[in-house]
Write a structure and sequence with these properties.
Elements: H1 3-40, H2 45-62, H3 65-81, H4 85-97, H5 103-120, H6 123-140, H7 143-159, H8 163-176, H9 180-196, H10 200-214, H11 220-236, H12 240-252, H13 260-275, H14 279-296, H15 299-315, H16 319-369
């Protein structure tokens, strides 16, 4: 054997060991970072962001596009929950570009983009991306994955108050899932649709079923949302004391981490206490809500709070403070006047998308069967 051939064999062997050790490092480090991310992503957004940044650096070092896509997806998720939607979109789109060789990763990123646009109020874009995720999941034939994306598509229709369409999608989602969490989420969202349709007995019935399933096993997030939904029903029934009780239950169920849902519950409590003329308590709840909303840069609910501040200060005879609050509300209201008009247009756009999607899905299902 020549020296040259021995050299190439040794080089090949070294490359093999470098590749396999690099691959092992890739998976073990990714698993460790991912587990840490999952530990913090709903309770400590800053820590989750730092972990996602570390995973991004790790994936760049390994030059692994799928890991890069996963890291970008986690960065997008972290920025979304910090209220920085522009940065979230930037990283989600980078995640999409790096996922082109993996349909599985691509379907997750489409879903992430869809949920971002839903929370951003860009409902047509949300539906477009969620349906792309649906197409990929339909090809894979995994019912649990289909259940998740149908639930998310339902949220878009709920967002534009198409309650019957949303309700139908939530029912489809419930039929496809075998997980307790999936069924609990479907029941919760069905109850919200019934409340929106003013079918309060049906809403109460779904929440009673949900409450029964939550006794042995229920996450804190579902539990808190269930109590918020129960409070909504009581408000619609004009039972303010019961509504206050359930909003307090919702807040104490949220693991003490601050998020927009907690801020909304606090605003609702402030409104109810204002109606009962408990102005000091109303201001206390409103201050807590406003503190959270400033951290998340949420102008929609900030404007709602400013309007309530104005009413409370006026009732207290503090007319200068009332006027200052109203002016802040008025400056933000112009943004959301356009937002509400856009939603009217969006409802029509969704109908057109739904019509074209029905035809596309029919063709796709025929291809899968053939």
């Amino acid at each position: 054997m020549s020296i040259k051939s021995i050299y190439w064999k040794v080089a090949k062997l070294l490359n093999f060991f470098v590749y396999t050790s690099k691959e092992a490092l890739s998976q073990s480090t990714y698993d460790s970072l991912r587990n840490n991310f999952l530990r913090y992503y709903k309770s400590d957004y800053d820590s989750a962001l730092i972990i996602a940044q570390r995973l991004h650096e790790h994936s760049r070092f390994l030059d692994d596009k799928i890991l890069m896509s996963k890291a970008h997806n986690m960065l997008g998720y972290s920025y979304k929950y910090l209220g920085n939607f522009d940065s979230a979109e930037f990283y989600y789109l980078k995640a999409l570009r790096n996922s082109m060789n993996s349909d599985t990763q691509k379907m997750y990123v489409y879903n992430s983009l869809g949920l971002l646009y839903y929370e951003w109020g860009k409902y047509s874009s949300a539906l477009d991306h969620l349906y792309k995720s649906y197409d990929l999941r339909l090809i894979q034939g995994n019912n649990e994955e289909l259940s998740i994306v149908l639930l998310n598509i339902g949220l878009v229709y709920y967002g534009v108050r198409s309650f019957e369409k949303a309700l139908n999608l939530f029912k489809q989602s419930a039929d496809l899932t075998n997980t307790s969490t999936g069924k609990q989420l479907a029941l919760l969202n069905m109850s919200l649709c019934y409340t929106g349709m003013h079918h309060l007995d049906s809403a109460q019935s779904k929440l009673t079923r949900l409450r029964n399933t939550c006794k042995p096993d229920c996450s804190s997030s579902i539990l808190s949302e269930m109590y918020s939904a129960l409070a909504n029903v009581q408000e619609e029934r004009e039972n303010p004391d019961s509504a206050i009780y359930y909003y307090n239950m919702a807040i104490t169920s949220r693991d003490k981490h601050l998020d927009i849902d907690m801020a909304v519950d606090l605003t609702s409590l402030a409104e109810l206490e204002f109606q009962k003329q408990n102005f000091g308590l109303a201001l206390s709840f409103l201050d807590s809500s406003q503190f959270i909303l400033f951290n998340f840069n949420n102008p929609k609910w900030l404007s709602i709070n400013y309007k309530l501040y104005s009413k409370i200060y006026s009732s207290l005879g503090s007319f200068e403070a009332s006027l200052r609050s109203f002016n802040k509300y008025d400056s933000l209201r112009e943004i959301f006047y356009g937002y509400e008009k856009l939603n009217e247009l969006t409802s029509l756009q969704l109908q057109q998308i739904e019509k074209s999607r029905t035809e596309e899905l029919g063709r796709l299902e025929d291809e899968i069967r053939s």
